[in-house]
Amino acid sequence: MKILSMLRKREKLLFILPVLIILLVFTTFPYIINLILGCFHMDLSNPVGNRFIGLQNFVKAVNDFRFWNSIKISGIYVFVTTMVELVLGVAIAILFHKLTWGRGFFQSLLLIPMVIPPVVVGLNWRMLYDANYGIVNYFFSLFGLAPQAWLAQSQYALMAVLFVDFWQYTPFVILLTLGLLTSLPEEQYEAARIDGASGWQLTWRITLPMIKNGLTVVATLRAIEAFKEFAKIYLMTSGGPGTATETLNYYVYQTGFEYFNIGYSSALAAILFACAIGFTALFQILTKLTSEEGS
Amino acid sequence: MVTGKRKKLASQIGLYTLASLIIIFFLFPVFWLFLTSIKTRVDAFSIPPVWFFQPTIENYLSLLRDEPFLKYLYNSFFIASTAAVLAIIAGVPTAYVLARFNFKAKNLFSFWILASRIAPPMALVLPFFVMFRTVGILDTYLPIICIYMVINIAFVVWIMRGYFVQVPVSIEEAAKIDGCSLFSTLMRVTLPLVGPGLSATIIFCFMTNWSEFVLALIFTGIETRTAPVLISGFVTFEGIRWGMIGAAGTLVNLPVILIALILQKYLIRGLTAGSIK
Fold it and tell me: Checking CA distances to A110, which of A14, A18, B3, B195 falls within 20 to 30 Å?
């Protein structure tokens, strides 16, 4: 009986215990291992020279051209995909919102690109982009444009990869924006219409300000996912040509699993993690701001 | 009056044409993949592309006959569902506590869970590798199931908390007066009320795991490979086997597309994971 009543008191703790243990074992503990590995010179292809080197891997990163390049590519990837998808997505959502019948049908078809497994998306587009047989070049040839090896030329590769992200995740923004639009109250529109406001004015002055907070969250979610992007790059360009599409995420993978430079890869991973935590904090602050303004 | 109506009709036609074009753009690649899967090699590589041709199921037959596709499909299913169920078992009680009670470290705890959702898996891959190698379970299903479970847990906690908050506390009060423990209140009263949400959450976890590629690539061996890893293997040094990619890709797409269409209402909510009301 005593044990039972003790359990009662501690029931809440018991409830969160599984998650607590799992997170400790599978996130916190690995992060600590990661930090420790990051302080070692550890090369699987040449294990003789493994030793503790303190923060030298981090110093190496600061002087590493490829590291800064990968930060730049990651930055471009996150910023461009988020912005373009947001603008396109909101524009298309406003258009779809005007459809009087069949909106549900259009909406459900839009779900398809974003639920497709990334491996299929990557290879599917690699096929479409193919320099010799790809249908993208065929469409371009209809307009008299010369065929290009989209994924093999450094001036086009990043653009081509970004475009696939637009294709896959603009529907995400469209669907969430449609959700925001349908929850808007009618009254303000009525009042504005009586005052003689045009369709454009309604959109700019009423719709956009009212969904602004929701859009902030949508953009943050997109940015977080874009920062994690790996499969599409791995399957379409492998970070190349050269380092044209090499994101930080991809560089961590390469140093660790292709060059077997475990120590340096771990140090880079720690930096990657720090960036992600920065995102998390930003995300929390933003959602807190939106929920406070909303209530 | 008549011109006004005509104008309206014209703008509606314009609107629907534009909307249809947008939809066609978003569906075209998936459709083209399917077409490639039912083309012969000659048709698949013809320029200009052929739209009408004699379809063949040779790619599908070859996939099932010459490749261990079914086995890897089973692996995908087994791994994805086991991880999803484990994540639900572990995550639901936590979601409930976060929805119902305040405690000292609540904010920190939530932040910790959220961080595990936001951090790129790549930051954890090397330590996982070291851990699983030390324990000696790299060739089993365990590593990939554990990893997927961890990824799912953050999602489960976040979304189930949203569902629990919506259940009024007053409904639970009667159960509490009857002396039910927290556990039996949750199991008998609250959980049945959020049943649809719970099922949808399991299915989304399943979908995430079913589609995942990178971690499966690193943490599965020959016996435990999942279908997405097999598909990536059709990119060989001798060339890319588009027909096989088309067939396997279409078969892997099919369940997620069906689930998405059936559960679209829940899916849209799941995508935001409780951050938008």
Answer: B195
Determine whether the interchain pair B271/A175 forms a contact, defined as Cβ–Cβ distance below 8 Å.
yes
Give the whole-number percent of chain A exceeding pLDDT 70.
94
Task: Out of B32, B228, B261, name the one closest to residue A135 (CB).
Answer: B32
SS (H, E, C) A183-223: CCCCHHHHHHHHCCCCHHHHHHHHHHHHHHHHHHHHHHHHH
Answer yes or no: are the C-beta atoms of B60 and B66 closer than 8 Å.
Answer: no
Which domains, ranges and CATH numbers included, belong to chain A? 70-294 (1.10.3720.10)
CB pairs under 8 A between A and B: 261
Q: What are the backbone angles phi and psi of residue B5, rounded to the nearest 5°?
A: -65, -40
| CA nearest to A254 within chain B | B122
Evaluate whether B128 touches A37 at the Cβ level (below 8 Å): no
Q: What is the pLDDT of residues A199-255, one digit of tens each?
A: 778 888 888 888 887 888 888 888 888 998 999 999 999 887 888 899 999 999 999
Say if CB A201 and CB A192 are below 8 A apart: yes
Residues of A with CB below 8 A from B17's CB?
none
Contacts of B33 (CB under 8 A, 6+ apart): A120, A124, A127, B245, B246, B249, B250, B253
Q: d(Cα B96, Cα B100) in Å, to the nearest integer?
A: 6
Task: Provide the ipTM.
Answer: 0.86
Contacts of A29 (CB under 8 A, 6+ apart): B127, B131
CA A183 to chain B, closest CA, distance in angstroms equals 10
Confidence of residue A83 (pLDDT cuts 50, 70, 90): very high
- For residues A115 and B257, the answer to whether their CB atoms sit within 8 Å is yes
Q: Which amino acid would we find at residue B164?
A: F
* Residue in A with minimal Cα distance to B246: A124
* Cβ contact, residue pair A171, B26, below 8 Å: yes
Average pLDDT for A69-91 = 94
Straight-line distance from the first to the last Cα atom of chain B, in angstroms, rounded to the nearest whole number:
42
Separation between Cα atoms, residue B87 and residue A76, nearest integer Å: 34
Q: Return the SS3 of B275.
A: coil
Q: What is the pTM of this model?
A: 0.88
Whether the CB-CB separation of A280 and A192 falls below 8 Å is answered with: no
CATH code reported for the domain at B59-272: 1.10.3720.10
Taking contacts as CB-CB distances below 8 angstroms, the residues of chain A near B264 are 107-108, 111
Query: Residue B35: which residues within 8 A CB-CB, separation 6 or more?
Result: B246
- Reference B247, options B45, B78, B40, B76; nearest CA is B40
Across-strand partners of A261? A43
Q: Which residues of B touch A273 (CB under 8 A)?
A: 119-120, 123
Tally Cβ neighbours within 10 Å of residue B65. Answer: 8
Tell me how far apart the alpha carbons of residues A83 and A177 are, in angstroms, rounded to a whole number.
Answer: 14
Q: Do A22 and B257 touch (CB under 8 A)?
A: no
d(CA B76, CA B93): 27
